[in-house]
Amino acid sequence: GDRAPADLRLLRAHQLAADESMLSGESLAARKTSEAVAADAPLGERRGMAYAGTLVTQGQASGMVVATGIHTELGRISAMLEHVSPLDTPLLRQIDAFARRLTFIILALALIAFLVGYGLRGIPLAETFMLAVGLAVAAIPEGLPAVLTIALAIGVQRMARRKAIVRRLPAVEALGSVTVICTDKTGTLTCNRQTAVHLLTAQASYRVEGLGYNPHGRIVPDDSPDRLPGVGYAVEQDANPNEDVAMLLQAGVLCNDASLLIHAASAEDASDDPGDEMNDDRRFQVLGDPIEGALLVLARKYGLEPQQLRETWPRVDVHPFDAATRMMASLHRSPQGQAHLFVKGAPEVILARVHDAPPQIHQTLERMAAEGLRLLAFATRPIAHGDVIGEYANQDLHWLGVVGFIDPPREGVLEAVQICQAAGIRVKMITGDHALTAGAIARSLGIGGSEVRVVQGAELEQADKAQLAELARTVDVFARTSPEHKLLLLQALQDAGEVVAMTGDGVNDAPSIKAADVGIAMGQGGSEVAREASVIVLADDNFATIAAAVHEGRGVYDNLQKGILFLLPTSFGQAMLMLMALLLGVSAAITPVQVLWVNMFTSVNLAVALVLEHPEAGVMQRRPRSPRAPLLSG
Question: How confident is the model at residue 287, as a pLDDT?
Fold first, then answer.
């Protein structure tokens, strides 16, 4: 529960684990040791270091302080944040260029009117000056700032209804003009909740339905055509999972220190459908290690009640998980009074201690790991005498099976990625997580194509400017990245003329969020630093909300063009009327006060009707507009 007070080089560590997601972006707690690692190891692999501000989740340690204040990793990110200047949005740049051109045209018209009136018509100087001023007033679309503000405000309101909270008004339209979305993985594309998705016993392979900590879902035989090698498939498709699954899940509950809490539904979450009450994932909370919590959820899906099982199988002795041995052992007394040992750990560690491992199991495990699954193996053995574990955990164990976990993609994210890609927007994943995990999630979401290429942060450091630009252009998945890597990629994309939206939740994401054309932070799981650096906050932390906000942003820009295209002919019509009257030598056709009345009370009200329109059909099927394009084309 303690936070590290400074950056520490660990001198002694006993089963220490720390939540470093705010710095590394990795969802699981990092295991720590006092051993040295390579000097150029990425932050997520520096096992001998504890960093200021990170939360200790288990174990004990002592170390030497090597950095405090601004010199810590956290302080270094804060310093980066101070030197990053936010960019103007494309709309502000376009409005600025449009206003300069419009001002030049209006001044030229006013000068022409002055020369015609005073030089050709001989109208007195004061009267000629007033005519020129009246023409300028007529040509200026005074209602444009009001129409612009109303259009953006309506966009803010609509985005808020779709869970995107806008902190700076111009960001409404800016999101509609993005060409690249750089997104974090954990918590944005994925649920940030470890979920058991695959079971492998000595007899069969099973897949697990349901995501997150909600214990509603089924365990069904794996009927995919691409079956894992070396595993039997004798179980019928409609049969219930058999005893081998029950033994595996029992081991997962007993050799486990986590708890699964179920909270009562709040009034605002109440639904007319009683079935929705138990399907609300927010009601379920894991106390302890996320992987162990996922095992409890898995057991409930099968029908086991963890608390009841723990009461009928009381714990006698335990060897907690040790980073050195990479395993945990727990001794329990059965209802019949017999002692049973349950062991879990890394598959290679458990396989070295069992006597009945399935054939070709190593190839199967390699394949599961290549799919980005985090694997946990289980074994057991009865103990005839004694009430301590001793050396029993190191020999003659009976193989139970393996459970594969993953932080699964959020519901609706796959469709949202496809919508963005259809709209001509490249989606790039930039994460601090492992390359295998990043590649597996990217493949499942269609990011990077069928043959996903994953580039790690170390490769970015070694690339020169030309190579970095090529990597930023061609690669869509980056793993083991630091805040500096994210900034390098962002700047390379912006130098290539892209309009970039950057999403993130941790302190490590804040510099790139601030430097992006559109910085997007997570509202639920995001840090305060990331939210302060952003211009848009996602209330539901869901990538699908970004796609919905892009849809609204494109509609806002279309409506702005409609409003401007209505205001300009009105203003220039009045200006031409006054200029023609001057050329013909007749009295002023309309006075400056009447011009203001028409512009402010008639034109604006009619233009507002245009900016209130909903986005046109097919707005997400066209490519993003060029950031160099003018506000209005010829």
Answer: 84
Query: DSSP of 33-78, one letter per residue?
Result: -S----TT--GGG-TTEE-TTPEEEEEEEEEEEEE-GGGSHHHHHH
Measured CA to CA, the distance from residue 538 to residue 360 in angstroms comes to 46
Query: Among candidates 565, 560, 564, 576, which has minimal Cα distance to 138?
Result: 576
pTM: 0.76
The structure tokens listed for 52 are 């200021």
* Residue ranges in the chain whose pLDDT is less than 70: 1, 25, 27, 86-87, 223-242, 265-282, 586-588
User: Residue 156: how many CA atoms within 13 Å on its side-chain side?
Assistant: 14
Report d(CA 325, CA 612) in Å as an integer.
64
Q: Would you give the end-to-end CA distance of the chain in angstroms?
A: 63
Q: Which amino acid is at 564?
A: I
Q: How many CB atoms lie within 10 A of CB 421?
A: 13
Helix (H) or strand (E) holding 180: strand 180-183
Whole-number pLDDT of residue 307: 93
Rounded (5°) CA angle 564-570-571: 85
Q: At 592, is the secondary structure helix, strand, or coil?
A: helix
184 carries an active-site annotation: yes
How far is the C-alpha of 56 from the C-alpha of 406, rounded, in Å? 22
Q: How far is Cα 610 from Cα 440, in angstroms, rounded to an integer? A: 45
Instruction: Compute the residue count for the chain.
Output: 634
SS3 212: coil
- Reported as a single tens digit per residue, the pLDDT across 295-351 is 999 999 999 999 999 999 999 999 988 877 889 999 999 998 889 999 999 999 999
- How far is Cα 483 from Cα 410, in angstroms, rounded to an integer? 24
Span 436-453, pLDDT tens digits: 888 889 998 999 887 889
- Residue 257: exposed, middle, or buried by beta-carbon count in 10 A (0-12, 13-18, 19+)? middle
- The DSSP element (H or E) to which 544 belongs, if any, is helix 543-584
The dihedrals phi and psi of 322, each to the nearest 5 degrees, come to -120, 125
pLDDT at 266: 52
Q: What Rg, from alpha-carbon coordinates, does the chain have?
A: 32
Q: Which of 470, 499, 472, 473 is nearest to 623 (CA)?
A: 499
Query: What CA–CA distance (Å, rounded) separates 284 from 186?
Result: 19
pLDDT for position 328: 93
Q: Beta strand pairing status for 55-67 and 477-479?
A: unpaired
pLDDT recorded at residue 112: 86
pLDDT in the model for residue 133: 82
How far is the C-alpha of 445 from the C-alpha of 371, rounded, in Å?
Answer: 13
Rounded Cα distance between 105 and 477, Å, is 48
Catalytic residue among 19, 184, 476, 541: 184
Two tokens, residue 276:
């929705």
In angstroms, the CA 229 to CA 208 distance is 19
- pLDDT recorded at residue 471: 94
